[in-house]
Amino acid sequence: MAWTWFHRLGSPPYIYGLAARLTPWFAWLSAALLIGGLYGGLVLAPPDYQQGDDFRIMYVHVPTAWMSLMVYTTMAVAAAVGLIWRIKISHAVAASCAPIGASFTFVALVTGSLWGYRMWGTYWEWDPRLTSELILLFLYLGYMGLRSAMDDMQRADRASAVLAVVGVVNVPIIHYSVLWWNSLHQGPSVMQLAKPTMPPSMLIPLLVMLLGFTTLFAALLLVRLRAEILNRERTASWIREAVTQ
Amino acid sequence: MSEFLNMGGYAAYVWPSYGLTLGVIILNIVWARRLLAKSREDARRRLAMRGEET
To answer: What are the start-end ranges of the H helices in A124-232?
Structure first.
């Protein structure tokens, strides 16, 4: 009895219906949070005493960088679950993550470059943080390339899952790079155990943006997951009902 | 208003960052919706073909 919920999580028709019902909630929540966070970050937060208004790039740079790591971790965990327990839906989740993660990793790199130009005097430096984040982009692109190179869905799932799981070692490297090596990039100012090093007027809009991007990821993932399920469940009879409604 | 747009002299770095982020968010929404629409269409076509055979 206690396990029925767990089995339902592996059932494509159940997940398809659940994803369809949850998507609007995440989408509207995300829109409200992003609009609120933008207003807080661009209007309410005061200019930084050292960086002036340039620090406002933080409100798009930090959440997109967070997305790049969080989406990859989600992808790697889903891929590992798919490899170990051979749950098809896990592979569908992993495959849905990659394009979302790749696009936001690209945004994190470009916004970081724009921010760095005035603060460090250069658009790019082969610095540990910057280099490991660039490798993350290549991991995403490699994952997507590997999938699209294979016609057989099951083989593509397994091969790409191995790549995703192996590549996850890069996630802690990115996170701790600013502590382990002498990096141009500043240290953590939000994710640390001691008190955050920002006043609430700057920190709250950032936290709202982080939540806004996370819920956006949830909404995007659920829409992509439904597409993946439809592509995989080629013969299932429930699909007739799902696509004709 | 022009002071706001000027971003304390950092407009050339702040606004492209926000513009790119907004653009990629919109692209992601469009991509995801298109992918689902295409998958639904493909599934419908497969079902229709099988319907003709039987």
So the answer is: 128-149, 153-167, 170-180, 200-232
